[in-house]
Amino acid sequence: MTMISVTRSTPALFRRRLPSPSTLSSLATAAALLFGSIHTGSVFAQTQSDAPIAVIGATVDTSIWQDPVEALGTLKADESVTLSSTLTGTVSAINFEDGDSVEARQWLVQLDDEQAQAELRAAQALLDQRRSALDRAQQLQDRNLGVRATLEDNAALVRQSEAEIDAIRARLADHRLRAPFAGTVGLRDVSVGALVTPGAELVTLDKLDTMKLDFTVPATLLSVLHPGLTLSATTPSYPDATFRAEVATLGTRIDPVSRSLVVRANLDNPDGRLLPGMLMEVRLNQPAREALTIPESALVPDGERQTVWLIEPGQPASVTRREVAIGERRQGEVEIIDGLESGQRIVTHGTLKVREGDPVELIAEDVSDGDIKEVLERQRRATESQINESQVNESRARN
Predict the structure, then answer these.
(1) SS3 for 278?
(2) Which residue, 28, 90, 150, 351, shows the most beta carbons closer than 10 Å to its own?
(3) pTM
């Protein structure tokens, strides 16, 4: 009988798939490193989760506050008039050019007055005749040869002629248009020889060294308005210029439709840049008062409410949400009416990272908007340095 021996051996396929001892050693080392890395990361993450949250804050402070009132106003000349004729006539002479500065009582336009001059000469001749008759009657009366009634009649005729001459001279004055005040004339739209009628506009005259600025404000501000309040005004015509003035007069009537009051201020205009009819943007400063203020960036809207994150002192400090009542706003700041006290600290940057009771680290305080980027960059570098240092320490501990 032939005996067959069977040798138990591992198939070649399975022998090829089994890792070598060196490979097993490498895998063990990698697993250990991976576990250590995961363990280190988890420890660091745990450490980070327990660390205070870095925030930027500000101190609630009392400051001087002026509530500005913004309005639109219109410029008017201090004195302004449009000269026109009161009678029908032909222009015989013009005594100005476009934009001239003229003196008070300077004549500007002359109308043809030949007929009125002839009437004046006739009236003067009649006056001379009547005065001669009055002298003769007076002489006869002095010698008791005349009648008293004749003397009185001649005296009345003399007075009548004098009145007629005054009337003619008044009509002659209407033929010559004069400047009622010193100022600047506008564009000339009339020529010599033109026929003008009563009411025809011949020339404009404005006194421009001082301008009147009229603007309207709500009647609800009547209690704080008074002459002497300061204001600043700008116009699109000179975007880089700011004109300052004081309230001169308050209107005496409130518009029943808009419930507004007209306020007038006087603006100096020595160089003549401002012209009547210009639109002005007015910023009126109300009387100064003290108010609690915080940076506007500290506000956290919550529905219709406004809240802030209040930094509570402690080791470490923590935050609590506090509802506040706000008043007026100005650039970058808001007035606090209720909810905070002077000296308290609030979060201005980092409001979206914190929750009720979170520990916080105040890395900067009362930082202007231009310096925030630098503060955040310093904090980022410090955090990276801390991470690197922690990783080095963990690596040393494993070795």
Answers:
(1) coil
(2) 351
(3) 0.59
